[in-house]
Write a structure and sequence with these properties.
mainly alpha
Length: about 130
């Protein structure tokens, strides 16, 4: 090894990176110390109130229906179905040439059948009927 580590073409970049990290850390710590020294510690009611944000918020109950959750799960379920069906459709011709066309086709039919059972179950439970909250 005739080259020393100081002659590496990226050694200067490494030194600048290290100096930047050190300067950034020191600047943040110095800013934190100065801001804590200069900040007022009194808690006024006016300081803690909302400013140009409309009326004062009142505490209210969180009434999010579980229907949104079920609808999102069904969306994800059928989205994943499409994600699995696209590569299958692309590779189906390859499986047909290998001789596995019938097996892969019936496997996809069983996958669609399971999803259809889940779809019918969700339909019977009323997951797709949108109800307005009055």
């Amino acid at each position: 090894m005739s080259h020393s580590t100081f002659e590496h073409p990226y050694f200067g970049v490494f030194v600048l990176f290290v100096l930047t990290c050190v300067a950034f850390t020191l600047t943040l710590r110095l800013q934190r110390i100065i801001s804590r020294k200069l900040a007022k510690k009194d808690r006024e009611k006016l300081k803690l109130s909302t400013y140009e944000c409309g009326p004062t918020p009142t505490k209210q109950q969180n009434r999010i229906s579980a229907h949104f959750f079920i609808f999102a799960l069904l969306f994800v379920l059928f989205d994943i179905e499409v994600i699995f069906m696209v590569p299958w459709a692309i590779d189906f011709k390859l499986f047909t040439h290998i001789g596995l066309g019938n097996f892969v086709f019936f496997e996809m039919l069983s996958f669609i059948g399971f999803l259809l059972v889940g779809f019918i179950y969700a339909w019977k439970k009323g997951a797709f009927s949108w109800q307005s909250i009055k």
